[in-house]
Amino acid sequence: MQLTHVVNLVDPFFTAAALHFDNLFERYGTPVYVLNLIKARERTPRESILLKEYTNAITYLNQALPQGQKILYKAWDMSRASKSRDQDVIGVLETTAKDIVTRTGFFRNGDDVNTKSRTQNGVARTNCIDCLDRTNAAQFVIGKCALAHQLQALGMIADETVEFGTDVVSALSHM
Questions:
Q1: Cross-strand bridge partners of residue 126
Q2: From CA 42, how far away is CA 13, in angstroms rounded?
Q3: Is the sign of the CA dihedral 104, 109, 113, 114 positive or negative?
Q4: Label partner for 43 (CA 20 to 30 A): which of 14, 31, 68, 77?
Q5: Distance (Å) of CA 18 to CA 29, 151, 154, 163
Q6: Is the dihedral of CA 97, 100, 102, 105 positive or negative?
Q7: 10-residue block means of pLDDT along the chain (175 residues)?
């Protein structure tokens, strides 16, 4: 006997997803950048079914959003990439993190006449199915990227990057 996994679509208007993203827009502004880490291919489709439905939800919701305020969506099978010899998982995450931080900005308090304050507008949302390792890894790399931008803006480092293995990244990982 073979089990088939099916999503019974009860709400073709994705009302729960719409409420969730409305809440994110209200709390953080735009852009909302979704990094979807759900598996794309599996022997027995489970996560991939949800990937398709989640992608459909984002596509549907974006139809009603004005240009410049649409949900930014990147689906990437991090699990498959991590098993591949020719994919640089950390490199992809760092490139994605730079894109996110460039789009959302970051907070900086303007504490004197020579520096201007900055605010972050928007948020990065990552998700996967029952694997906090993927979500945590992605969020850590995004946080590392934002921290590097903040340190550079404060004049503490010259470049907008901090390398793994440094004291500052070690301190970040223990927060």
A1: 35
A2: 27
A3: negative
A4: 14
A5: 15, 35, 38, 38
A6: negative
A7: 60 94 97 96 89 96 96 95 91 97 90 77 91 89 94 88 85 82
If DSSP codes are grouped into helix, strand and coil, which group holds residue 135?
helix
Half-sphere exposure of 141 (CA within 13 A, CB side): 20
Residues 6 or more apart from 68 whose CB is under 8 A from it?
30
Could you say which DSSP state residue 74 is in?
A: E
Query: Which H/E stretch holds residue 124?
Result: strand 123-127
CA distance 33 to 133: 19
Burial class (CB in 10 A: 0-12, 13-18, 19+), 6: exposed
Report angle CA 125, 145, 100 to the nearest 5 degrees.
40
Per-residue pLDDT at 130: 72
> pTM to 2 decimals?
0.88
Structure tokens belonging to residue 161: 């990057």
pLDDT computed for residue 2 by the predictor? 55
